[in-house]
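Tokens as discussed.
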């Protein structure tokens, strides 16, 4: 999601959208990818969302209204433009999110093919190991 703050309307949103997508597409075309992904388009992997916010100083009331609308897109699952669509859910427990994102980032940095399902298995193993340590430290006192 691209949020363009302090948008006063001089440049139409459609033009900003075209420019940002063109820039992202250019970056995509320049990164190295595995041979089987050379024909893949950026839109095969990313959905682009755009929002503008009025100028905070010049239009504080309008800015507040638009912030509330944007917040609804993140918080209200019944909103028609809700950001977190069900197809994006990965069944990652919130307390394991930092480890999951760290592992994904390590894969990206090391320029390996992303294998997100194995990252989920890794996270599950990590959490099970944590729970196992906690459980092994519990002492039972016979009654």
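Sequence:
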């Amino acid at each position: 999601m691209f949020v363009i703050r302090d948008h006063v309307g001089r440049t139409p949103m459609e033009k900003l959208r075209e420019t940002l997508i063109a820039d992202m597409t250019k970056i995509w075309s320049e990164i190295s990818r595995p041979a089987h992904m050379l024909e893949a388009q950026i839109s095969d992997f990313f959905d682009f969302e755009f929002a503008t916010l009025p100028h905070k100083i010049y239009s504080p009331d309008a800015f507040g209204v638009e912030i509330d609308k944007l917040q609804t897109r993140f918080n209200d699952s019944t909103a028609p433009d809700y950001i977190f669509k069900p197809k994006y859910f990965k069944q990652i427990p919130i307390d394991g999110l930092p480890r999951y994102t760290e592992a994904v980032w390590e894969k990206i940095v090391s320029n390996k093919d992303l294998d997100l399902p194995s990252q989920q298995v890794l996270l599950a193993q990590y959490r099970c190991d944590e729970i196992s340590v906690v459980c092994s430290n519990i002492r039972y006192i016979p009654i």
